Amino acid sequence: MKRIKPTGIVLPIIFFVAVYLTGCTQNAAPTSRTSLDWLGTTITITVYDRVNSNTMDAVFSRIEDIHTKMSLQLPTSEISRINAAAGDSPVSVSPDTYYVIQRAMEIAEASQGAFDPTIGPLVSLWDITGTPYLPTQAELDELIPLVNYRLVELSPENRSVYLPLQGMKLDLGAIAKGYAADESASILRDAGVEHAILDLGGNIVVMGNKPDDSPWRVGIQNPFSPRGSHLAIYAAKNQTLVSSGMYERFFIQDGIRYHHILDPSTGFPAEAGIAGVTIISDSSILADALSTASFVLGVEKGMNLISRYPGVEAIFITYGQEIITSKSMNNQLNYTDEDFSNTTYSGTR
To answer: What domain of life does the native source organism fall in (predicted)?
Structure first.
């Protein structure tokens, strides 16, 4: 099988664009810092309170620490060591990595495998973020048995993780950014910061209101338009917003778009009629994983999944240009694109 030329592939984009921020710096000029080095994405932290450089250093050091432990691109990371030992021996890991794997396993169970942290073999085969490759059905059939979160063995006594089949691979790419966002917000909160926006490659955390006490206004990306085109604006306070979409990373072959969100049960990009989904919560690690799971599950099963988590809301955008929201959030959402119809989810569709 020849590797195909990567036509149409794009880098991760910011799904949520904080808009109309002018005039919100009554208390202090904003302090902003950006890094391109960690978690495979652009990270920007903007604080609208007085904050010293040591606090910002601590935030970015924490993100670097999480990257060092959980990045698949680093052969020395704890995740890479777990994968290298698959079928051979358990690997003891740090409390950070063990916690994130535990949370990943919990959401995998709740979603019945729609979110599966053992998706690594399929992600490596498609290589959509590198040199995209369209696998054969035979190649997928060979790897799918390795994708099964139920096989992962966790030992809390020594925080060890064991993958029992050679070739299994953990991939925390759909949850580690959420953990890093939560940890970053915690550091800022402990330093007395009340007004800030954290953007970890589209994982958005807003702290408090704007300094003028109005909500942060966060644009929801139109999945069918260029970056920065929003179809709605969400009024947020002390919340995180995380999105998954077919527009983030993809390639096109023979007129067919192959996006990066794979269905663990088929090995192919998920086909549930969803162009994008946004999860809103007070936990970025939870929203990160639920956005992937909900994209794979589709509207009905995705809404049923998020209903298990108090305070979690969802915005689904279908290929039919319909915006479907969970029941209790429309008063915070202002629609801005008349090409889309909007519906509040009320049950089985």
So the answer is: Bacteria
The secondary structure element, H or E, covering residue 162 is strand 160-162
pLDDT at 225 (0 to 100): 82
Question: Rounded to whole angstroms, how far apart are CA atoms 30 and 47?
Answer: 5
- Is 138 marked as a binding-site residue? no
> How would you list the strands of the sheet with 341-344, edge to edge?
31-35, 43-47, 196-200, 203-207, 239-245, 274-281, 313-318, 322-325, 341-344
Domain of residue 289 covers 16-61+194-344
Residues 46 and 97 in one domain: no
Q: What's 45's domain CATH number?
A: 3.10.520.10
Query: What residues of the chain score a pLDDT lower than 50?
Result: 1-26, 349
Consecutive H or E run containing 140: helix 137-143
Encoding tokens for residue 282? 């007070």
The domain total for the chain is 2
- Give 115's contacts (C-beta < 8 A, 6+ positions apart): 104, 107, 108, 174, 289, 290, 292, 293, 296
pLDDT score of 251: 66
Residue 258: its pLDDT value, please?
A: 73
Q: Is 292 annotated as a binding residue?
A: yes
Reported residue count of the chain is 349
Q: Is the dihedral of CA 292, 120, 12, 179 positive or negative?
A: positive
Residue 3 lies in a domain: no
191 is in an annotated binding site: no
